[in-house]
Amino acid sequence: MKNGRANFGTKLGIILASAGSAVGLGNIWRFPYETGNYGGAAFIFIYLGCVLLLGLPIMIAEFVIGRKSRANTAGAYQILAPGTHWRWVGRMGVLAGFLILSFYSVVAGWTLEYVIEALGNGFAGKTPADYVQSFQTFSSNPWKPIIWLVLFLLGTHFIIVRGVEKGIEKSSKVMMPMLFVLIIVLVICSVSLPGASKGIEFLLKPDFSKVNGDVFLGAMGQAFFSLSLGMGCLCTYASYFSKDVNLTRTAFSVGIIDTFIAILAGFIIFPAAFSVGIQPDAGPSLIFITLPNVFQQAFSGAPWLAYIFSVLFYLLLALAALTSTISMHEVVTAYLHEEFKLSRRKAAWMVTSGCIILGVLCSLSLGVGKHITLFGLGLFDLLDFFTAKILLPLGGMLISVFVGWYLDKQIVWNQITNKGTLKVHTYKIIIFILKFIAPIAIGLVFLNELKLF
Ligand code: PFF
Fold it and tell me: How far is the CA of 303 from the centre of ligand 1 (A)?
């Protein structure tokens, strides 16, 4: 314990907890449906560019801020830039965390319904059209999704209250490797379905003629969302890192794990979707209507295998979502706990109850409240758009300016090289990107979206 604050126990724990935050519904639910919306391979190509050019350097920047300050994300700016407006970057992150947690928990709740459905062998003997129908009936039901959402948030709450090492680290260590193995098996199943090759083509053959500014904004937003960047989440985790952690290497590990899982998720969903004739741009329902088909068709000769795989998959998906909801909850809880001197328990309860209220409204916006819209979007879609495509990239841009321009060079050097004990060959490139490339690239995508040029 340093400064009375907790620390992560081991280096592997650090990577797994950070990867646990990054890997979640963003990879397995959001990445495939955004890829479907934006036309496939070209989107993935631009996405990879965003991860490499923006994601990794900004992740390192968040690590620098977090480990140097050893504080929650808003407090970090108060320590590193006292009396300045930089603290608003932290506060904006806290707001983003709260908003994302609210709509994210709705989808996390859906995964629980699907665990129960799988346990009761509810997918057996159905046609693709049945899966579409049952998803629509479920997600527009006023009660069921809300009950799951509340249960999910309470689960997150209790892990948060148990603290960093016991709760976050231990759970990540077991769940992450299991999820990975299962995903690989599912990729193999999916690509061997009849007619899967069209899906593989969709993922690998880019058609750049359809690329416009929206595709860039979508890919950039997805990179930030998937890597948990731009809202101080990994900055908060880094505040629990010990002095000898190699920040650059950790960022690369997390980035590679996260990207690999997203791409693999694409290789599960699209071959399966094309195989059964589901449109790739089906939107947020995509994984919930294509995956039951994968299980039933790939194991049609061995129904017990279909059963085991479907139960395991939705269970692990729920757990992957849990390691991400924990990280978002932690950002807001640590902020309220440290800045307002509330007890951790009280702070956590405030976050949980606030998210339940907003989450319920998001859930209703997909069913009974469908007709209530702002800028043509319901609350769920509006929060998704506002956070992933505006708040997170804006946060990322400000974080890169903060570390690239404002923060003392010596501090940045000391953090990235552990006071000169590590040789970081990419140091100059990282700083160059933080100073110029990241702010300009994000700025251009924003300006283009505002139709300013
Ligand atoms: N990265 C998570 C996912 O891909 O599911 C979502 C997320 C977690 C976003 C934490 C932002 C965050 F701070």
Answer: 34
